Amino acid sequence: MRAALEQGGAAVSGCRASENRPRPRRWKKVLYERQPFPDNFVDGSFLEELRKNIYVRQYRFWTVVCESSVVIHQLSSVCVFVVLWWYMDQSHLSPHRLFTYSLLLSLFGYLTFDVIDSGAGRNLSGRTRWADLKSTVVFVTFTYGFAPILKTLTESISTDTIYAMSVFMLLGHLIFFDYGANAAIVSSTLSLNMAIFASVCLASRLPSSLHAFVTVTLAIEVFALWPMFQKKLKAITPRCYLVVTLIFTLAAMLGVLTVSLTGAVLFALLLLAVALLCPHYLIKLQSSKDNIHGPWDEAEIKEDLSRFLG
Amino acid sequence: MVIKIFFPSCCSEAESGLLIGRWIPEQNAAVILAIFHYPFIPGQVKQCLEQIRALTNVEVSVLGSWNGYDSRAKEDLSQFLEDLSSIFPHDLWFQLTQGKERKSVFDYHVVQKGNKNNKKNVILIYYDQRKVMLSKLHPLDITIPEDDDHAGVMSEVFASDFATVFDTVAKCESFFVIDKYDETVIKFTHWQSEGREASVVVELVKQASVPVCVIFSFLLSFISSVCKSRVLNMWPLCFLWSKLSTCVQLAHRLDHLQTITTTTKAQNHMEFMRKANLFVSFLIDVALGLLLISWLYQKNRIGQLADALVPVADHVAKELQELLEWLMGAPAGLKMNKALDEVLGRFFLYHIHLWISYIHLTSPFIEMILWYVGLAACLGLTVALSVVSDIIALLTFHIYCFYVYGARLYCLKIYGLSSLWRLFRGKKWNVLRQRVDSCSYDLDQLFIGTLLFTILLFLLPTTALYYLVFTLLRLVVVVVQGLIHLLVDFISSLPLYALGLRLCRPYRLAAGVKFKVFQTVADKPLHLLMQINPLTYGMIIRYYRLPTYSCYPKDSWTTLCQKLFLGELVYPWKHKTEKQD
After folding, report:
1. Which of A38, A148, B119, B525 sees the fewest Cβ atoms within 10 Å?
2. Shortest Cα distance from B446 to chain A (angstroms)?
3. pLDDT digits (tens, 9 = 90+) for A226-235
4. Is the separation of the CB atoms in A147 and A209 below 8 Å?
5. Do A157 and B446 touch (CB under 8 A)?
6. In a domain? residue A1
7. B332–chain A Cβ distance below 8 A for any pair
8. Between B78 and B72, whose confidence is greater?
9. Signal sequence span per UniProt (chain A) (predicted)?
10. Do B319 and B399 fall into the same domain?
């Protein structure tokens, strides 16, 4: 580049020296005119269009902490599910009682779902209550019908394999979950399927088919219905959402505490790390950002083109 | 320029006369067919030549003169011979003189029209006229002819030098029939001029064969029209006929018999050989079949066989039952799903129970059935082997049923699993574009899909094991049946007549010729003896193999393995629907 500059300088001075031209030619950044400079010449205006870090967002600590509540929420859901399963396995909780309570909670959540935005979302999606009822009936019938098969499904497989598979599947569920980010790895279908697979694996270890039925129903409620409700809540009333998250997380921690102390401590550490450490680290790393932008970037279509399409 | 003169060895004892034969200009070869003796009238000679040309379709002409060893006057012969050359115009006039001391050594003098002093090199080749006439030269540098129509054309297209020579001699067969006992105006010598040999038996058979063929062809056409009637070809029956290999083999034999007993004469060599091969093969087959019958029906062996059959079937069923009990336990320490295991095991056990009851029900009739079916062996050994193959198929029918059940179940499971695995990942098979695309499913679809996927996945080892076991059993049976079919094909496709001909009369099937140097005497031409090189046995089998509906593996190994893995039903042997040489 320096050589080019020098060459350019020499050429410019050479131009000045020669009296062939009336005045010195300025270099123009075009190739369709014949200029006295070589094709790869750039004058002093090199890289003057370079911009650095123009799209860097300014994060504020507490906003980021509030946004990380989505991840916290999902971690707590997984913990709640596992704790409840553990209770049933240890026969601390009877399946009837669990089934009744979870059914009541689901009903309450269902009614609140419509009340929150006073019916606007339901009108938008066009889903009738009759369709909801049909879906529920299908769920319950299928789960009840398959419960005996589910119970004996993994009889001959060792417990350790089952545990390992469940852990793997639940981790996958957490990784692929749709937290609201627009990334390629996000696949809500895959995350839901993995959670159900894990629940079936765990359900097959329980004593009776009623236990299996209740476990699968609980999994549906915790992994499919609850996130839907939370998304709605977050969109409409963020403060209420934060309160609910806090209560839920505390309940999960208490549940893990009753199972094992080490687990509770580890869980608490994990939550703190996700909630406080990660935002702090994110903001700290912003200062070492070094993005360069310029006219060489790919064009991005920022407009919404759906108004042009039919 | 080297000229080859083919001289029949039977004529070396002949008296002096004219050389009659064919001149082949493109090969510079002269084939001597006969010798016309003195005295003769030139007009009659020309007339005779015309008649021979009309009879045999060969361009015979007078090629030169021949001086035997006992010619008396030699002095004025040269002028005589020159006059001869002017009477019978020919481009090249050969004058062959037999040597006095050694009868088989000739001297020659070639006279060319317009260029008398050109000394040409001549090679004299002795050939055995009878053998060359009967022999058929096989072109070796072309592929086996695909169908009969083109065989004649091909032999002209790829004719080697000697093929023309052989052809010429073979075409003059009708000329060689005239011997010295017939009334002819001119005396001549060829291999059969001393008198024809014929046997009374052969003549009688030739005379009788025509009406016998007529009767047989009528009978066979009647039988085949009965077989092709609508009654016997309704849907369930025609499916049964196509599956039983006995019926298939009988149909082939009927076809063969019809080919043999057609009243039209064979047009060319290939057709004749095919007819002869079929006939001999059929005779040998029937002879072996009769031998088998005579052995089987002595000392009540049929009864012993029938008595042994039911215990064998029982034993097979018992072994199968033990196998199923083993599968229902924990076979080889594999983890099976207890409930599904028991269901499948009980299902198959019930089938075996049904089968055994059926066998016991028919056990009083088995001896009678076997007795009558054994009589079918008189139609040939191949039919007997087909009957054995059919009996094996019938006895192991339950294994075939089990294989079909297991395969269908496994196939369904694999299909379901692959489709649900795509649903698990959130993708779908796009039938229009034949590829996998992403798809947004509803919640209930996702839920039920995942549930089913889990269930199918965990039940996969059980189903796979049952499928594996029954597939192996079925493959064993298929291999045994395939071996029997291969044996049947081998017997029916072997060209026994051609092999016998090669054994007894090797000169009939020629692969080429070989030359032995006969005499080398200084300043006499090169004398060679031409001997026929017969075809090797391998070439004979390759060339004259009879067309069979041979069975061969339909799929390659990779396709077979793929089909087995996916659970598709496998029928490894395929019968070709049309004839192939």
Report:
1. B119
2. 7
3. 998 898 888 8
4. yes
5. no
6. no
7. no
8. B78
9. none
10. no
Rounded Cα distance, A285 and A293, in Å: 19
Domain boundary among B362, B392, B416: B362
Does B343 reach chain A within 8 Å, measured CB to CB?
no
User: Within a domain: residue B373?
Assistant: no
Q: Do B206 and B336 belong to one domain?
A: no
- Model confidence pLDDT, tens digit, residues A41-91: 888 888 888 888 888 888 889 888 988 999 999 999 999 999 999 999 998
The ipTM of this complex is 0.77
Retrieve residue A208's tokens. 């009776």
Asked if residue B102 is part of any domain, the answer here is yes
- Domain boundaries, position B481: 380-493+551-580
B164, B79: one domain: yes
* Closest CA–CA distance from residue B383 to any residue of chain A (Å): 53
Closest chain A residue by Cα to residue B457? A153
Whether B396 and B472 share a structural domain: yes
The 10s digit of each residue's pLDDT in B138-147 is 776 544 444 4
User: Does B440 contact chain A (CB < 8 Å)?
Assistant: yes
B177 lies in the same domain as B242: no
Chain B positions touching A138 (Cβ under 8 A) are: 444, 448
A54 falls within a domain: no
Over residues B533-541, the mean pLDDT reads 83
Q: How many domains does chain A have?
A: 1
Q: Which domain does A213 fall in, by range?
A: 61-286
The candidate with the shortest Cα–Cα distance to A113, out of A219, A224, A233, A235, is A233
Q: Which of residues 116-145 of A touch B (CB under 8 A)?
A: 135, 138-139, 142-143
Structural domain includes residue A82? yes
Burial B122-143 (b: 16+ CB within 10 A, else e): bbbbbbbbbbbbbbbbbeeeee
Contact B347, B328 (CB under 8 A): no
B447 pLDDT higher than 90 = no
Q: Is residue A182 part of a domain?
A: yes
For residue B531, tell me if it sits in a domain: no
Mutation site, A173, A191, A196, A215, interface B, largest B CB count within 10 A: A196
Question: What's chain B's length in residues?
Answer: 581
Q: Which of B135, B163, B189 is the last residue of a domain?
A: B189
A146 interaction partners in chain B (CB closer than 8 Å): 451, 455
Q: pTM of the prediction?
A: 0.73
Q: Are residues B179 and B205 in the same domain?
A: no
**Would you call A287 helix, strand, or coil by DSSP?**
coil
Judge contact between B127 and B514, C-beta under 8 A. Answer: no
- Contacts of residue A189 in chain B, CB cutoff 8 Å? 424-426, 440-441, 446
Chain A 200-259, residues with CB within 8 Å of chain B CB atoms: 200-201, 216, 220, 224
Q: How many domains is chain B built from?
A: 4
Q: Which residues of B touch A156 (CB under 8 A)?
A: 330, 335-338
Nearest to B256 by CA among B51, B493, B68, B460: B493
